[in-house]
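okkk here we go again. third time trying to get the MTE bound version out, last two times i messed up the smiles copy paste (missing a bracket lol). double checked this time i swear
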Amino acid sequence: MNGMRSPKGSQLNTGERIPPGQRLVSRLPVLHYGPIPPFDPATWELRLFGLVEEEVVFSYEQFMAPPTVRIVADIHCVTGWSMLDTVWEGVLFRELLNHVRPQPEARYVLIHCDYGYTTNLPLAALLDDDVLLAYRYNDEPLPPQYGHPLRLVVPKRYFWKSAKWVRGLEFMARDRPGFWEVRGYHNDGDPWKEERYGLIG
Ligand SMILES: Nc1nc2c(c(=O)[nH]1)N[C@H]1C(S)=C(S)[C@@H](COP(=O)(O)O)O[C@H]1N2
Ligand SMILES: [Mo]
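finally!!
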């Protein structure tokens, strides 16, 4: 496509940032299953449940209170596009552990979204310093199609793990595959290892 490639010089610089089998795009494509959910700040909540000492429910206002961080991340979609230097602001996932205490057996998290979309990650992976629950993108409020009011951003995994419209975090002792993981996508989804598809399907 026209205008999708960087000029020659910067392509050399950015080449080592593009995992195998990926091509660069300059705008974030909109990709999801199903419709964009409606948002009502009065009824929206984020639920932290499962293997936690005590369940926590954040209202929209409460969730906006913890300190904000800003990350610049390269993201890679399993369908083959990559985008460099995306800018996200929100709350670090690991900051949530100041608000909820996972039980010692909790080793995995299932992310629950509106309309039943889910994705699974090891708790350890979510504690990385670049994993964010984001509510701003490129210095603007997160647009509805990109997950408003809240999405997960996990730069080290293919982008289907970066769940939009997040409503619940379920702490679990055993791993449980999410929406795409059940349908044949790889359980881990590391772009640098080209973990696109799993063993099922
Ligand atoms: N809730 C929800 N989150 C989702 C999806 C979805 O279908 N529902 N699709 C995933 C996939 S497959 C991709 S590639 C990215 C796309 O994010 P974007 O539309 O912001 O580029 O969202 C991910 N998060
Ligand atoms: Mo995707």
